[in-house]
Amino acid sequence: FRYCPKCGSNQFVEHNGKSKHCDACGFTYYFNPSAATVALILNERDELLVARRAKEPAMGTLDLPGGFIDMYETAEQGVAREVAEETGLQVTETRYLFSLPNLYMYSGFCVHTMDLFFRCTVEDATRYQAMDDAAALSFIPLSEVRPELFGLTSIRSGLERFLKEYRH
Questions:
Q1: Nearest-5° angle of CA 64, CA 68, CA 70?
Q2: Which among 80, 83, 76, 94 has a CA at the least distance from the CA of 130?
Q3: Which segments of the chain have a pLDDT < 70?
Q4: Model's pTM, two decimal places?
Q5: Taking CA 67 as the corner, what is the angle to CA 153 and CA 96, rounded to the nearest 5 degrees?
């Protein structure tokens, strides 16, 4: 941001690594991460549902269902909505696992995110279809999941952690 969002002044300068301050009106803007969700969906054969990204960033690479949480939405509602939008699957249960900070390029702008990882149970894991941000979907046996093939840093890190800590 070059101009103060409160008064429009161009005296909007870096205050510290977490904020900018307007020398004209005194307003201080603090940068906070945007909340995003990631769904780990396993079927009865211990296979993980993975997507192929339809859009940038990292278009064409592997990903997990998820995305930004909307205003007035809980994280659980957000992950369920994102799963439905990308896969057509209805989430019946969510269990929070962990979070990871991330940098996500959106329209040429670097967005700080806090990615919230959930283990999700779905109504019928066989009735999925790729939609929205997902170009394709498939289940991969957990033993064959290779985090290095996933295009986004936080997804790779989250998968490594999940495979280490949460594998049956």
A1: 140
A2: 83
A3: 167-168
A4: 0.89
A5: 85
